[in-house]
């Protein structure tokens, strides 16, 4: 999306705003599927950006849902129940009862603890519903369970008439190099063979989050989109223990389609240091790996003046905290009040992961774009002061 289109959007809908290029999103998903081939399914981890789930219904094989709220969003957008994997750590009896009443057992459910096993067993027995489950193997943190507990639950599943074991779920984090992916896939293949040898259990599904690298910052080098996917395909084609492989992706799918736009509302020079205050802030923009504004993300500027002279400047938001520094001591064209900063690759997490309610600032507008329909505002700017008030 070029600057002129973005300028048109901001003139129409104002700042701050998130803009999601749906044409770019579609192209990226289709390219991922083209490189990986028809034998590998793609699951969109909707926690990355829940606004765009409907735009991918014709291209994505599955959606990962990690909370009751995310399931309700899928419900409102008429996402088919059988393409949802219900994941996440805090499964309660009440939330699973609600979801079971909606899906009647369609989809896949993850087990991440003995408590999850008990809850799912109880709900399914009460409703006389049969479900498919995958057990999440831990990567050494609070998510999933270790191999011993995995085997313990697997033994219980063999005698459970309501829960059918379907496979392994594994995700160890984001922004991983392929060397780590190779080790993880080898470990999962070996563990699946172990389960087959010891318990005679076939692992039909591997639900795996590769956490591929996405380059957010200038001056950092990562393998290309095509390079990572091609090598990943080569890694996965040698797997023999799983009939079906599904790759969970959130950041890798959604990042590229998003733009965050914020307007300069004030300028000052303090003790020789230049500052631009914008109407957004760190509560609305989040890049994985950013530290106190020290790294410069890919961005653009729409200026009111014609000056091309660069100037060292600090970009700060509208929050009352010294931490609200989006960019520190970066070289940008000379900025004036009314100029627009365009931050690229904001399609994943920025819209949901920031501390959006801090200081009762407005939530940014959300705008979709494609060539056929042009710009469509799907959420206006929303005041948060009512949410932050007990009255």
Automatic annotation (TrEMBL):
The protein's required cofactors: pyridoxal 5'-phosphate
Segments forming domain Orn/DAP/Arg decarboxylase 2 N-terminal: 23-254
Source organism superkingdom: Bacteria
InterPro entries tied to this protein: Ala_racemase/Decarboxylase_C, De-COase2_N, PLP-binding_barrel
Gene3D superfamilies membership: Alanine racemase (3.20.20.10), Lyase, Ornithine Decarboxylase, Chain A, domain 1 (2.40.37.10)
GO molecular function, one term: diaminopimelate decarboxylase activity
Listed name of the protein: Putative pyridoxal-dependent decarboxylase C-sheet domain protein
GO biological process entries: lysine biosynthetic process via diaminopimelate
Lineage of producing organism: Bacteria, Bacillati, Bacillota, Clostridia, Lachnospirales
Keyword field: Pyridoxal phosphate
């Amino acid at each position: 999306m070029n600057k002129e289109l973005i300028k048109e959007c901001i003139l129409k809908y104002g700042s701050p705003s998130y803009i999601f290029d749906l044409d770019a999103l579609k192209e990226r998903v289709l390219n991922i599927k083209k490189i990986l081939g028809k034998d590998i399914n793609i699951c969109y981890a909707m926690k990355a950006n829940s606004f765009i789930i409907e735009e991918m219904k014709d291209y994505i094989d599955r959606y990962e849902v990690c909370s009751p709220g995310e399931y309700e969003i899928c419900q409102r957008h008429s996402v088919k129940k059988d393409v949802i994997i219900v994941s996440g750590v805090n499964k309660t009896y009440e939330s699973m009862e609600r979801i079971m009443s909606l899906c009647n057992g369609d989809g896949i459910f993850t087990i991440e603890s003995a408590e999850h096993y008990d809850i799912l067993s109880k709900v399914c027995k009460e409703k006389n519903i049969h479900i498919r489950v995958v057990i999440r193997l831990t990567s050494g943190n609070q998510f999933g369970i270790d191999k011993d507990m995995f085997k313990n639950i697997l033994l219980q599943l063999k005698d459970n008439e309501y829960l059918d074991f379907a496979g392994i779920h594994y995700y160890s984090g984001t922004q991983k190099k392929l060397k780590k992916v190779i080790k993880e896939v080898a470990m999962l293949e070996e563990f699946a063979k172990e389960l087959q040898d010891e318990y005679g259990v076939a692992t039909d599904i591997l639900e795996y989050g590769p956490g591929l690298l996405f380059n957010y910052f200038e001056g950092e080098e990562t393998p290309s989109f095509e390079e990572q996917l091609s090598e990943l395909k080569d890694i996965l084609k040698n797997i023999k223990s799983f009939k079906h492989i599904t790759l969970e992706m959130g950041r890798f799918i959604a990042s590229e389609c998003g733009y965050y736009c914020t307007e300069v509302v004030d300028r000052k020079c303090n003790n020789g240091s230049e500052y631009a205050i914008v109407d957004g802030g760190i509560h609305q923009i989040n890049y994985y790996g950013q530290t106190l504004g020290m790294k410069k993300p890919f961005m653009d500027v729409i200026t009111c003046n014609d000056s091309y002279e660069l100037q060292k400047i600090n970009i700060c938001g509208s929050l009352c905290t010294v931490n609200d520094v989006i960019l520190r001591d970066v070289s940008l064209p000379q900025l004036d009040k009314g100029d627009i900063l365009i931050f690229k690759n904001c399609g994943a997490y920025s819209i949901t992961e920031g501390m959006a309610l801090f200081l009762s600032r407005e939530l940014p507008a959300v705008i979709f774009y494609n060539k056929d329909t042009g710009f469509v505002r799907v959420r206006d700017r929303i005041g948060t002061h009512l949410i932050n008030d007990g009255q």
